[in-house]
Amino acid sequence: MIALLALLGPQEKSLGSNVRLVYLHGAWVMAAEVAFIAAALAGLFGLLLRKDIFHAWSAALGRTGIIFWLTYLPLSLFAMQANWNGLFLAEPRFRLAMIFAITGVLLQLGLWLFNISWLTSFANILYIIALRVVFATAQNIMHPPPSPIFNSGLWNVILFFVGLNILAWVAGYFLTLFFLSLQPNKE
C-alpha cells in the first residue's frame, strides 16, 4: 500500500515523476532510523530500570530497523538509476549505508544467537550512535543538505512526505510486534 501511495505522490520540477522514488526511499530510511532510535531508547530504559520488557522491545525494534535499512538500499539504487541514469556506488552516503547494512545484519544475527538481553540493548544504543555520528560527518553528493523536501516550501510535497513517513512508521510498528511475538517468554 505504501509503494502504491508513493506512485501517486506529487511530481517535482527537476526530477518529474521520478521524485516519487526519492519520497519512498526517504521515508524508508527514516523509518529505519526511527526504529534504531526507538531500539536505543528502549534499551536504555531496559538497562536503567532492569526490566526485561524494555530489552525485548529493544531487540524487536533493532530487528525492525535493520529490515527497513536493508530494504531501503535497493530503493536507493532504483532512485539513482531512474534520476541520474546510472549507479554511483562510490557515493559516500550509499557506501556508508552498505557498510552499516552489513554490520547491522551481522550484529542483529549475533545478538539473536547470543540472546543476552542487556547486551542487545547496549549494542542497539551503540549502533545508532555510531550511525548518526558517521552520517553527520559524511560528504553530501547526491543528498543535498539540509532537506530538499522540507525546504521546498511546497506544502503538498511536505504533507505527502510526512504522510508517507507515518505509514512507514505504522508498518514498522506492526513488524516490531511480529518480532516481539517471536521472542520466548521469560517468566
Quick take:
This protein is mainly alpha-helical and 187 residues long.
Q: Please, could you describe this protein's structure?
A:
By secondary structure, the chain is mainly α. It has one domain. It has helices at residues 2-7, 19-49, 52-84, 92-114, 117-136, 155-182. It is globular and about 50 Å long.
Number of strands: 0
Order of helices and strands: HHHHHH
- Radius of gyration over alpha carbons? 17 Å
- The total number of structural domains is 1
**Large-scale geometry:** globular
Helical fraction: over 70%
Residue fraction in strands? under 5%
Sheet with the most strands?
Answer: none
Uncertain segments are none
SS class: mainly alpha
Average pLDDT figure: 89
Tally of separate helices: 6
**N- to C-terminal separation?**
38 Å
Topology overview:
Blueprint lengths: L1 H6 L11 H31 L2 H33 L7 H23 L2 H20 L18 H28 L5
Helix pairs in contact: 2-3, 2-5, 2-6, 3-4, 3-5, 3-6, 4-5
Features:
187 residues; mainly alpha; 6 helices; 75% helix
